[in-house]
Amino acid sequence: MKKLQEKIPVAILGATGSVGQKFVELLANHPWFEIVALTASERSSGKKYRDVVNWIQSAPLDERIGSLVVRKTQPDLPCKIVFSALDAVVAEQFEQEFALSGYVVISNARNHRFHPSVPLLIPDVNPDHLAAIAKQPFDDGIIVTNPNCSTTGLVIALKPLADSFGIDKVHVVTMQALSGAGYPGVSSLQATDNVIPFIKSEEEKMESEPRKILGRWDGSRFIDADVIISASCNRVPVIDGHLESVSVKLNSACTINEIKEAWVSYRSAPQELKLPSAPKQPIHYFDQPDMPQPRLLRNLENGMAVSIGRLRPCPILDFKFTVLSHNTIRGAAGGAILNAELMAAKGYIQ
Length: 350
Ligand code: NAP
Hints:
By secondary structure, the protein is an alpha/beta fold. The protein contains 11 helices and 14 strands. Helix 4 (88-100) links the parallel strand 4 (81-84) and strand 5 (104-107). The radius of gyration is 19 Å and the shape is globular. The protein has helices spanning 18-27, 49-52, 63-66, 88-100, 149-164, 188-191, 202-213, 256-264, 269-272, 294-297, 329-345, and strands at residues 8-13, 33-40, 71-72, 81-84, 104-107, 142-145, 167-176, 216-217, 222-223, 228-235, 242-250, 283-286, 306-313, 319-325. The chain has 2 domains: 8-148 and 333-345, NAD(P)-binding Rossmann-like Domain (Rossmann fold, 3-Layer(aba) Sandwich); 149-326, 2-Layer Sandwich (Dihydrodipicolinate Reductase, domain 2). 48% of the residues are buried. Helix 1 packs across helix 11 and helix 5 packs parallel to helix 7 (202-213).
């Protein structure tokens, strides 16, 4: 473990929101990174973080971080690495401004995900996409994004199948947690005793993002994977953890045991590099007929592992199964921190 004075200083943009708080919680005792600045909107800036944040994490707010004064979101911060948990309405402008001022921006927002030289990164799936950074137009700055929270679990489950058997078509129905809507998000009168069969722009993201992530960087551009995806997204009264029912059509014949083996034996760059936030085993398979369940399994391997169960034949496509992943950890702040760890290990962050 690096000593405190050797840690890399970092800031969080949009630190008061749902994802921003999760960054604060996960980075409070990080072995490589140390929070030196927090930003938010002008509503919050100029006040101590503990006085403006509506802290909704289960771990208590770190004393030192709570006493930091929230800054305006402008590129005058005492560090070069910024994690962006900004509202998408403002993220595009701020993230570009920071990158053009020489910052490394590690973003959760949707705005730059389809930029032609910005990686849409899941370190366990497409670590080689970091090569696109060499073509970025942000002077000395860098932007790297992570996918939508519901895309992340799906793609981690699909990657071993794509490698071993090839994927032709995917049909996915999501049951997404309330925390995915930010804070305060969906009102209690909408959420309680209810399922909302619509999440704005979510289906479009799930149908496009996996194609970029499972595709390849050819040295000058991203080439999408040739896979068709149909998604239906629902908001359910669960606090954390997105559950997804998935059916797949594969390009080559295989057995149920071969698929299970492809999942549980899957390892990638974060495991090889022993990154601090990497799950030891990215995918866990559960044979019990009623697993995975959000309340029981969302925190597996500190919320960074994906749980799968219910693999069985599909009478329409080839196979169907259920995937669970933690939306604000693996699907947001934890995923972005893993991106930063990979970039540090690969020399993109000094
Ligand atoms: P949120 O709870 O609404 O938080 C938004 C943050 O942006 C707050 O800190 C807010 O500061 C700040 N902000 C808003 N307007 C601003 C402005 N004009 N200038 C500077 N800061 C401003 O949203 P969230 O759920 O944490 O999501 C953050 C981002 O991550 C979004 O782009 C979202 O799409 C993405 N994301 C979320 C999830 C999830 O599971 N929630 C998953 C993946 C990706 P104030 O408190 O001062 O208003």
